[in-house]
Each structure stands twice: as C-alpha cells, then as structure tokens.
C-alpha cells in the first residue's frame, strides 16, 4: 500500500510494495484443514462495528472509537487505522523471526525510494509468512469487502524493511486495479511498541492543491505501532509518503500491499512543472568582462581546447574553482546575510520536487552581487564561452536564438528533485535534440544538491506500461553506472543531456 508500491506515474512508487502476480487468478494453495495461526480481534468482526463503519465509510464521515482503537479519517482521503488487529500477539513474534531470519531481501534504490523488499508473499514457503498471506486472502479480503463495499478479487503482499535513512517519497498508489491499500505494522520490541517522531518512519499524508497535486508540508503523520493495521481507498487524492527513518536502533518493518478489484483503471497523473525561472531569448545585451567572474585558467585557449575534447568524448566535465573566489565570497556573504529576506519559494508539486528556488523574476529583491551573477550567466559573453567549450550553437553565425532556463536553488534536509525523464522536458521546441546542463555550486555543505544522471528508456509508452504493473520498477535504469555530480564550492559542471538521459537531485538526508 501506500508505503511501498507504484503510483500513477513514473514518480509514484510506494511503500506498500506488493509486487505480485500480474493476472487476476489467485495463487493456488490447498485449503488448510487446521485453523489459521492469525485471527482477527473479535471487536472488528462484530455486527455493530461492521454496520457503523460501513455507514461512515459510505457517507465519508469520520468514525473514531479511542477505547477500541478505531480511527477512520476522511481528510485528505479515506484512511483507517485499527489497533490490536491480530488477537494473539504470539504469532507476531514468530512472524517477525521469519522476516528477520528467512526473507530474501532485495534492496530497492531509485530517485524517490530506498528500502528493502521481500518477494511477493504468495510465493514464500516460510510457515508464518505463508499463514499470514492466507489470512489476508481468505479472511481479511472478504471482511474488507463488507467494510468498504468494494468488490475485491485478489490480494498482493510483501514485506518491507526500512533502515536508517530509508524512505519512500510521495505517490498515490494509483496503478492498474488497486482498490484498497493496506499496511500491517510489526514492532514487537518491548521498548518501541509505538514509534515517536524522533524515530521517523511515519506514513505522511498530503492534501491536494488546485491542480490536484500534493504540496508540502504533510497535514498528518501516522507512526508505526505494533499490531496496527492501516488501510485506505486508492484514488487520485491518496497522496502519501513514508518519511525518512531516523532510528539507528530499530528498523521499520511492515507487511503491505493492495486488495485488487474490477472497475475503471486509475488515470495516469501527469505533473506539470511550474518552476520559477528566468528564460532569456536571446541572451541579454549587457556587456561583461569574463576575467572578472571566471578563473583566468579557464579562459586560456589551450584550456578551452582541452575542455572541448573532454566534453566531446564524455559529454560532461567538472571545472573546479571556476568562479572567481572574490566574487564567490561576496555572493555567499550576501546570501547568508539576507537569507530570511530573500524571496525563496517552493513552486512545484511535492511529487516532482522539494527544494526552494529564488524568485528571479523579482530582481529588485536580490542582493547586488547575486543579481549581477544572474545577469552574467545570461550574458552573450557566457553563452559564447559555453560555445567554445562545447561547440554547441549557443553563439556564432549558426546560433538560432539561444536561450537558457535559469534557476537558483537552496537545499536543506529532505530536499530532492524527481527524475527528469528526458531533455524534451526542458526544451521549448520539438526540434531541440538535447540540453546542456550547467550546474554552478556556490558551496558544498554536506553534499546537499548532488545530481545523478542515468541512461533511461526514452519511450513515454514504456513508462506508462511499467507504471501500470505491479512488477518491481526501479526506474528502467540501464546497466551502466550513473554519473554523479557532487557539490564543490565554486565549481561549474557541464553535462550534455539528450533524450536518452534522465537526471534527479539526490534526497538530502535528515540524519
């Protein structure tokens, strides 16, 4: 469910990672003659509870019984938590032992998730894990139908394990035939039956904006608690994430997945960029002296030739100590001094990025040296220098209205940008074959703002097909290693990115 799976678009994987069978046929287990090890607490099977809950769910009305541990909320979407879900907790300890000692974990790591996941539980042979899967399939699914009125056909389930620093960023679970997402929490250690904010790992809920996209901050957090069962209705509004685990002592462990059913398939949600940027066409006319801004070594003819040859061979280069140190110091001092006065904004949806951008469309609010840097990066002189470095038509007789997309970012813990799927996302005309990324770092605090480039399928149809599957989707990255651009104060990084390349800003950990 909402913790480990895939959502409506490429950027929508989730924690409920039950990546299970693709067809609607249930796994063919023999009916067991003995009673299940796992039994639902009797209070959740009473006719009074079933009737009251079903009525509240249908009417989108809150239903809370603190004494019984029942909490149905309707905002920002219908979600319920049930405490003491399994009546006998001895089975939970045995279940946990199998999860720790017998599960063959696979490490998942993409632009928006990082955690360990088990195979689908329909294929495991460990006693208690198999029993729990059958319990979900044979008892919980029919009970869920009575609660929600949804017609359900099969269940998918897997185990997820989050260690320190692991997380799963925002998604809505809208893939294929998922109807109800669920998470069963296991935290059997006596001292941490219930997690606290300092441990992280909460399921965080987000509301929509006017464009039906989620934005920070989350409006609610639900923390792990032993023997807690959580479920919610999967729809275009069910935006959520698993917050970064901060605990060094205990992992976040869940069994999670979806109940599937017939009906209209969820639409694929496309997020649209709304980044605050300055676009120039052509470059501005104000004259600049390159030597006032750039280390003189990078202006020498032999150095330019070396840079050009390197880019021709590798499509990228990192130029350390590129910016004049006097200019760099003055800019950093300005930004630090005026930090709280500057127009920093988060303009894009949370499922696309979470980092602040300086509003460059209001230059009157920018410090003097910072405003001058912004103009310099848009100047004809800088465009011509990039032309000499790359031989791209950014200047000279073959240049056709060169332009740039310019943004100044500020990175803090929990910042990230999601995968940019192709150069076409940044281009403004269909005939542009690629984009030259120029990343200038002003400082290198804690490596915040690391960018990662990967080779990726450039087919939109392939992306949509993978998003409609329960199979593990790790971003369709090619086997060759990624290009990692790490912050270095005053360094300029140039990367030529065509439609086969994708990039993202690595998540900045809180720990």
Structure description:
It is a single chain. This protein has 8 helices and 28 strands. By secondary structure, it is of the alpha+beta class. The protein folds into 2 domains: about 40-260, Jelly Rolls (Sandwich), CATH 2.60.120.620; about 275-420 and about 435-460 and about 480-505, q2cbj1_9rhob like domain (Jelly Rolls), CATH 2.60.120. Helix 2 (about 90-100) crosses helix 3 (about 125-150). It is elongated, with a radius of gyration of 26 Å. InterPro entries: Oxoglu/Fe-dep_dioxygenase_dom (IPR005123), Oxoglutarate/Fe-dep_Oase_C (IPR019601), Pro_4_hyd_alph (IPR006620), TPA1/OFD1_N (IPR039558), uS12_prolyl_hydroxylase (IPR051842). This is uS12 prolyl 3-hydroxylase. Belongs to the TPA1 family. Keywords: Dioxygenase, Iron, Metal-binding, Oxidoreductase, Vitamin C. Its cofactor is L-ascorbate.
Short précis:
The protein folds into two domains: 42-260, Jelly Rolls; 275-420 and 434-458 and 481-505, q2cbj1_9rhob like domain (Jelly Rolls), CATH 2.60.120.
């Amino acid at each position: 469910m909402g913790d480990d799976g895939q959502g409506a678009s490429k950027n929508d994987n989730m924690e409920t990672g039950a990546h299970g069978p693709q067809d609607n046929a249930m796994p063919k287990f023999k009916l067991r003659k003995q009673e299940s090890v796992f039994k639902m607490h009797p209070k959740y099977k009473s006719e009074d509870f079933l009737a009251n809950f079903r009525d509240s769910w249908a009417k989108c009305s809150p239903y809370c019984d603190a004494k019984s541990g029942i909490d149905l909320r309707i905002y920002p979407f219908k979600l319920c938590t049930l405490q003491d879900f399994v009546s006998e907790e001895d089975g939970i300890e045995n279940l946990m032992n199998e999860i720790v000692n017998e599960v063959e974990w696979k490490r998942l790591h993409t632009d928006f998730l990082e955690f360990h996941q088990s195979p689908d539980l329909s294929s495991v042979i460990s006693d208690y894990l198999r029993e729990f899967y059958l319990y979900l399939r044979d008892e919980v699914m029919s009970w869920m139908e009575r609660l929600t009125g949804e017609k359900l056909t099969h269940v998918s389930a897997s185990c997820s394990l989050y260690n320190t620093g692991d997380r799963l960023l925002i998604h809505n679970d809208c893939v294929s035939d998922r109807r109800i997402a669920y998470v069963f929490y296991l935290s059997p250690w006596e001292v941490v039956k219930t997690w606290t904010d300092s441990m992280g790992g909460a399921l965080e809920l987000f509301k929509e904006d006017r464009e039906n996209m989620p934005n920070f901050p989350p409006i609610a957090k639900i923390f792990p608690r032993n023997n807690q069962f959580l479920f919610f209705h999967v729809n275009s509004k069910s935006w959520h994430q698993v917050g970064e685990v901060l605990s060094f002592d205990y992992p976040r462990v869940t069994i999670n997945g979806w109940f599937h059913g017939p009906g209209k398939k969820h639409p694929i949600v496309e997020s649209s960029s709304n980044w605050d940027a300055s676009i120039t066409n052509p470059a501005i006319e104000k004259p600049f002296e390159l030597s006032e801004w750039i280390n003189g070594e990078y202006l020498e003819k032999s150095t330019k030739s070396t840079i050009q040859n390197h880019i021709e061979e590798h499509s990228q280069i990192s130029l350390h100590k590129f910016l004049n140190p006097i200019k760099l110091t003055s800019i950093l001092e300005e930004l630090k001094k005026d930090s709280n006065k500057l127009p920093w904004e988060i303009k894009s949806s949370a499922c696309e990025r979470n980092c602040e951008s300086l509003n460059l469309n209001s230059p009157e609010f920018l410090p003097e040296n910072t405003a001058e840097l912004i103009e310099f990066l848009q100047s004809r002189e800088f465009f011509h220098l990039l032309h000499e470095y790359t031989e791209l038509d950014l200047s000279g007789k073959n240049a056709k209205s060169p332009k740039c997309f310019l943004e100044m970012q500020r990175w803090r813990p929990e910042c990230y940008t999601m995968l940019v799927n192709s150069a076409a996302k940044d281009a403004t005309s269909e005939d542009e074959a690629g984009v030259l990324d120029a990343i200038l770092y002003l400082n290198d605090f804690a490596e915040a703002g690391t960018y990662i480039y990967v080779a990726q399928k450039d087919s939109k149809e392939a992306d949509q097909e993978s998003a409609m599957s329960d199979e593990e989707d790790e971003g369709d990255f090619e086997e060759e290693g990624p290009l990692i651009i790490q912050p270095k104060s005053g360094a300029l990084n140039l990367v030529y990115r065509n439609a086969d390349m994708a990039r993202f800003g690595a998540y900045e950990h809180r720990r």
